[in-house]
Amino acid sequence: MLEFNPSVLKQLYRPESDSHKGQNGKVLLIAGSKLFHAASIWPLTVLSRIVDMVFYASTSENNEIVAKMKEQFLNGIVIPREKIDDYIKESDCILIGPGLPRDGGQQEGDDDTKILTESLLTKYKDKKWVIDGGSLQTIDPEVLLGLEQMPILTPHQREFEILKSRIKNQELRIKVENISLEEQVEVFAREYNCVVLLKGEKDIVSSPTETVVISGGNAVMTKGGTGDVLAGLVAALYSKNDAFVSACAASYINKKTGESLFQRVGIYFNASDLADEIPKVMRELVV
């Protein structure tokens, strides 16, 4: 399996000097719950530093928290969940799932993650979707088949196991369970016409036609929230780039950011540090 070639980073979209506000990416973030607050703020932090506009839709409690932080993302708009449809239509890409309730974790006031995610995917088949966290743990993979633009899925190992267990085609499910992990990711991406970014010590990124492995990072990248940071980076890039290139580039940049922090502070950094460091690393790698 091929290792990722960093020269791909030069293919990433860069704003033109004469571009106007809104032309360089608009992303809707549907994230967070009454239990998980920071899981929605980490991807928001990354998104607000890369794209022109971020629309943030969470619980009323999280919306209030973020509204108080608004000076940190001047191009962000906090919206109530009932206004999601209006902002989906306006967005270049939608990230759904970080911090959304998993099965059995829903509390009073939370939306049902499975119903919310599958209904939006079904209603807005023409949009670019990045699916993470609670959404990955609750949806049936078959809902992906109707999408017109290739979705990006960002599971860790356990979430990928859950996705495989929900495959309705018994023959396909048996096939997937009896091949190597790399082949499982390839088959899943091909069967469901999606890009899978399987997070791990080595990330595996697969589209229906190509697969790469991305090495790097360090043990600190297992800390809570680092996957939410990565999801935000994926969505930011996907708003203006190809799905496979976006997933590969985000994985590589995220790992290099972890390495950059490790050189300075060793193992003593967290997801917030990672989100803050990404623009500095991107300046070296992309610009």
Question: Can you offer a commentary on this structure?
Answer:
It is built from eleven helices and ten strands. It has helices at 38-50, 60-68, 84-90, 113-123, 133-138, 157-165, 170-177, 181-191, 226-238, 243-265, 271-285; strands spanning 2-3, 26-30, 53-57, 76-79, 93-96, 128-131, 152-153, 195-198, 203-206, 211-214. The protein has a ten-stranded mixed β-sheet with strand order 1-10-9-8-7-6-5-2-3-4, sandwiched between helices. Helix 1 links the parallel strand 2 (26-30) and strand 3. It is globular, with a radius of gyration of 18 Å.
Report the order of strands and helices.
Answer: EEHEHEHEHEHEHHHEEEHHH
- Tell the overall outline: globular
User: In whole angstroms, how far apart are the ends?
Assistant: 28 Å
C-alpha Rg (nearest Å): 18 Å
As a percent range, the share of strand residues is 5-15%
- The secondary structure category is alpha/beta
